[in-house]
Amino acid sequence: MSKIHLKMKVNGKQVETLADSRELLIHVLREELGITGPHIGCETSHCGACTVDMDGKSVKSCTVFAAQANGADVTTIEGLGTPDELHVLQTMFKEHHGLQCGFCTPGMITRAYRLLQENPDPTEEEVRFGMSGNLCRCTGYQNIVKAILAAAAEMNAAKEAAQ
Q1: CATH match for 88-162 among 3.30.460.10, 3.90.249.10, 1.10.150.120, 3.30.70.3340
Q2: Topology of the domain covering 3-79
Q3: With helix as H, strand as E and coil as C, how does the chain read?
């Protein structure tokens, strides 16, 4: 296989690496760049554990060739918050018990981030539909939906207070 030179921005930092021409983005993120938040689940795009934000869209990184991310801006769960300063979605998942084993959580939160960028004030039905590409085998979905709606409310309140 031929190697390709990749340049992309990952979690706000410019990175460069070599990848096989048929290598998947999830493998480059985890194995080459040491970014382990996105998980390898089904490798068929059904579960969403590998969801990342790429150029303003949620993508399943297990079905995106790394070459397709060349020049892209990629955000993973690691780019949304820090252990000392969690993103509001991370806080709400914690407060509303929107996680159990945690395997799907990085993909869930990353998808929820994009959902709230696209629709800052979603209804419960819109959240359920918008998250339907991400599966959880532990918690059920009620607390995940509650967490996303609570994050939306908090983000909207902060936006209003800043105006």
Answers
A1: 1.10.150.120
A2: Ubiquitin-like (UB roll) (3.10.20)
A3: CCEEEEEEEECCEEEEEEEECCCEHHHHHHHHCCCCCCCCCCCCCCCCCCEEEECCEEEECCCCEHHHHCCCEEECHHHCCCCCCCCHHHHHHHHCCCCCCCCCHHHHHHHHHHHHHHCCCCCHHHHHHHCCCCCCCCCCCHHHHHHHHHHHHHHHHHHHHHC
User: Cβ contacts of residue 132 below 8 Å, gap of 6+?
Assistant: none
Mean pLDDT of 64-76: 97
**Scanning the structure block, which residue is given the tokens 């084993």?**
101
Angle at 78 between CA 74 and CA 82, to 5 degrees: 140
The pTM for the full model equals 0.94
Q: Over the stretch 79-115, which tens digit does the pLDDT of each residue have?
A: 999 999 999 999 999 999 998 889 999 999 999 999 9
Q: Which residue(s) pair with 13 in the sheet?
A: 10
Task: Give dist(CA 22, CA 160) in Å, integer.
Answer: 46
